[in-house]
Amino acid sequence: xxxxxxxxxxxxxxxxxxxxxxxxxxxxxxxxxxxxxxxxxxxxxxxxxxxxxxxxxxxxxxxxxxxxxxxxxxxxxxxxxxxxxxxxxxxxxxxxxxxxxxxxxxxxxxxxxxxxxxxxxxxxxxxxxxxxxxxxxxxxxxxxxxxxxxxxxxxxxxxxxxxxxxxxxxxxxxxxxxxxxxxxxxxxxxxxxxxxxxxxxxxxxxxxxxxxxxxxxxxxxxxxxxxxxxxxxxxxxxxxxxxxxxxxxxxxxxxxxxxxxxxxxxxxxxxxxxxxxxxxxxxxxxxxxxxx
Length: 292
Ligand code: OGA
Ligand code: MN
Known about the structure:
Double-stranded beta-helix, binds manganese (II) ion, globular, alpha+beta
C-alpha cells in the first residue's frame, strides 16, 4: 500500500491512509508524507495504535525532536522520555490532575490559538499528536491554515506587514491566564523569539501570516497598538469557515506543520481523563533537508 489522501476541508487538511505507522518508514513513504504535509499542512491518520516507542521511532524519521519548554522548566513528568510531550490532564503519579494544577494551566494555555514553540529559535516544524484516551465530550482540536490567511489579506494589510516582525514570548499565555508570578530573572531565562509577520513556508514556498497567541509585540511598535493589530490579524486567520475541527478517536495520529498552521484545543471536563502524547520535530536545517 502507499499513501492515500482524502481532503477533510475545503482549504487544507487531509485524511491519510495506506501506511502502517507502527512499522519502520520507507524512504518513499517519508517523501510522500512530506509532500502531503507541504500541500495539506494537517494529516489525520486513523486507527494507528502506536506505543510510545513506536511514536518516537516514526517521528525521528522526520528529523531531530524538539522538547519545547522542557529545555527551560524542569518539572516531574509522567512520561519517561523527555521527547514525549504529555498532552493530558494527568499528574506525574498517574492521577487526574487537580483543577487548579500547573498541569491544567498548560491545558488551558493550549486552548488559545498557537503554533507550538514559536517562542523558541529554532521553532517547531511538525507536531505529531496521538490520542490515547479521549473524554466523553469536548476536547476537539481545531486548526487553521496561515498560508490561506495570508492569501486572503487585503492589499493594504499585506503591504503594511511586509517588513514587520513580531516577538513571540513563552510566558505570555501564562500571564494572560493569571499565572503572573514570574521574576525578571525567570523571564530573562526565556527571551522572546522574533519572526517576520509575513513569513515564507519552507516546504511549499508559500507566504503565510505568522501570528498566534505567543506573538505579544510587534518590534518597534507601542504595546497597545501592536496587541490590537495582532489580535485583528489572528481574528482574520481563525474565521470559523476556515477552521478544520478534529474530533478525536483513540488511535488517531494527527500531524500538523507549525510553520503553516495554528491550532487550539477545545474545552472538555477537566475532571475527566484526556490523554494525548505529542512528539515534535525541530525546525532544523537537518529536518528541512530530510523533508526536501
Ligand atoms: C498540542 C496542543 C491541543 C489539544 O498538543 O500542542 O496544543 O487539543 N494540543 O490538546
Ligand atoms: Mn500546541
